[in-house]
């Protein structure tokens, strides 16, 4: 069973929202989860309607049944300082640095330093145990970088381990990769039922698979309700004018004769229905693309009033029903 849930997906599809809902869902019934934000934008604090999070773990929500959601927003500057600090503490790390050549190290690793710390921090939280010998958190959920950057992000320790061939940095990097490549980790993708995000999802999954990173579920977010059944959609798509006019007049909206109310309503209604039918057809195509990925699919509805705290709990409850326990 995975304990580190990495939530990625195309920008704006709902990664932060879904990660938060998942953290709540997995905390239900007395469990403890840690929600980690890595982009430093305080999205989690906004979502939970709390003060901006400091760079430390703190409880931000109570789950149904008494569970706890803790959160950690990793600040990039603090992260860098933390990492440098770790370097100075690691005695032989200095020697490793010398061997590598400072320039090599800086150009190859510096852009990824932040990522090294972020993934390292998340893995540390996954492995951490309390005095009672039990895991500090039942699950750790990461609001991760978008699809285009996720594989490199998760693989950054692989590069580090290759550069520092022995010593504490090497060992630390390898320990992180061991967690990330194990079944303890699952990388989930959030998508919408639209061509671009679905394509990105497919590409992202292919990339993760070719790099040996563990894929999890696909979460289809902002799903709009189906207003018409299959038959009605077909009728609308084929513009069955007479049938619609007749149905309207049977519904008491005036006679179907020329100039009557039903007659005047027919065309605008058919136009709307046609647009709806088109959307449903497009969504059907995207759904079958997603089914082809051979991963568990979950769906979350579009909350028409946006996601406030109550909405977030609703999404969490919905996710919990669908999530394998
Ligand atoms: N199920 C939903 N129903 C309605 N609105 C939603 C839903 N999920 C997310 N949203 C809204 O969509 C917007 C984007 O969501 P969110 O910030 O979670 O996406 P993101 O993928 O994290 O974005 P970014 O790439 O900028 O980090 C937000 O305004 C959020 O409230
Ligand atoms: Mg986000």
Automatic annotation (TrEMBL):
GO terms for molecular function: ATP binding; ATP hydrolysis activity. It comes from the Bacteria. InterPro entries: ArsA/GET3_ATPase-like, ATPase_ArsA/GET3, P-loop_NTPase. SUPFAM superfamilies: P-loop containing nucleoside triphosphate hydrolases. Residues 5-177 form the ArsA/GET3 Anion-transporting ATPase-like domain. Pfam families: ArsA_ATPase. This is Putative ATPase /MT3781. It comes from Streptomyces himastatinicus ATCC 53653. The lineage of its organism: Bacteria, Bacillati, Actinomycetota, Actinomycetes, Kitasatosporales.
